[in-house]
Specification:
- By secondary structure, the chain is mainly α.
- 82% of the residues lie in helices and 0% in strands.
- It is built from eleven helices and no strands.
- The chain is globular, with a radius of gyration of 23 Å.
Length: 329
């Protein structure tokens, strides 16, 4: 955060993480408040849903087994099965709703906080709570467009896998190698789309664009820093995978499993915080790489618009974009 903008373009893989950690520890109080309010519930909901979903799935499997192997009072058993399915899908819908809500709220809070610190504005937790409800709707629209992109990407991947499966008569070594190559390419594309989504989320908060325009804007910013973006989020995904492996390995081991579960919640909470800060740092690096000056006065006006101090750019259809200094008359 204390680096001159012209030096930000030189920040690399480890530099992104270094600046992220430096920012978090420099303003520990505000980030702790945001983490406990938004990111902690997000982490707990994410991990707890695996346990609850497993219990509900067990009820479904048990009801199905009773129907198949026991024909006594089948009407009651079918009712039990349908109730279990309804409960499962209601839970899934509720879980995804809260997961999306806390994810968007966390993104809005972190990005706004870092931008306020960068522009020299005073930032308090009370201000953060005021702007979060005003930003999350824009973030939700950006997410919906990203979700559509993920959906189309997975459809294409499914078609490619179907072609591989139907054209492979024997699972030879060559066929397996081709499958692993396709899987590797899929992972590369998936992480890239994730990085693009995170960058578009920052654009949504800090610029006038949102939705599809924010994604296109993020795609133009990420040019020249694609591999840096990919490796930054690949590193986060690896740690994320390690936490999940730890969680699934010990989650069912009684009291010890409970302690390990709480440890995983703590680790995941800090990982999410690091990820949200890193995506904003990546935005600043991309801006600097493209020689787009970050107008602190324009940024301050954009942020003030959320609090009603100025007319926000997205309401008056003006494009601040932090790269065009605002001329005052």
């Amino acid at each position: 955060m204390d680096k001159p903008q012209e030096e930000m373009q030189e920040v690399g893989f480890f530099g992104i993480y270094k600046e992220s950690f430096k920012t978090i520890f420099s303003w520990k109080k505000i980030f702790t408040q945001i983490t406990l309010t938004f990111i902690l519930p997000l982490s707990f909901i994410f991990l707890a849903h695996f346990i609850i979903a497993s219990i509900l799935e067990w009820r479904i499997y048990r009801a199905e087994d009773q129907i198949y192997y026991n024909n006594v009072d089948s009407k009651r058993l079918y009712h039990r099965l349908s109730t279990a399915y309804i409960g499962y899908w209601v839970f899934k819908f509720t879980y995804l709703s809260f997961l999306l809500l806390f994810s968007l709220l966390s993104t809005a809070a972190i990005v706004y906080t870092i931008a306020s610190l960068y522009s020299g504005n005073e930032v308090t937790f009370k201000k953060v709570l005021k702007i979060v409800p005003k930003v999350w709707k824009r973030l939700a629209l950006t997410f919906l467009w990203t979700y559509l992109g993920f959906f189309m990407y997975n459809v294409i991947a499914g078609v490619v896998y179907y072609i591989w499966d139907t054209t492979t008569t024997t699972y030879s070594s060559f066929a397996i190698v081709v499958l692993y190559i396709l899987l590797g390419l899929y992972c590369v594309g998936f992480i890239y789309i994730t990085a693009l989504w995170q960058l578009a989320s920052v654009v949504t908060v800090l610029e006038s664009s949102y939705g599809l325009k924010a994604i296109l804007r993020g795609n133009s910013l990420i040019k020249g820093k694609r591999w840096l973006s990919w490796f930054v989020f690949f590193g986060l995904c690896c740690i994320f995978g390690g936490i999940l492996i730890m969680f699934f390995s010990f989650a069912w081991h009684g009291f010890f499993g409970l302690m390990m579960g709480l440890l995983c919640v703590f680790l995941l909470m800090n990982l999410f915080l690091l990820g949200y800060v890193a995506q904003t740092m990546l935005y600043l690096v991309c801006k600097s790489y493209h020689r787009e000056p970050i107008d602190r006065m324009g940024l301050s006006s954009q942020l003030g618009g959320y609090l009603g101090e100025f007319e926000p750019a997205f309401k008056v259809n003006k494009d601040i974009q932090l790269g065009h200094p605002q001329v005052q008359v």
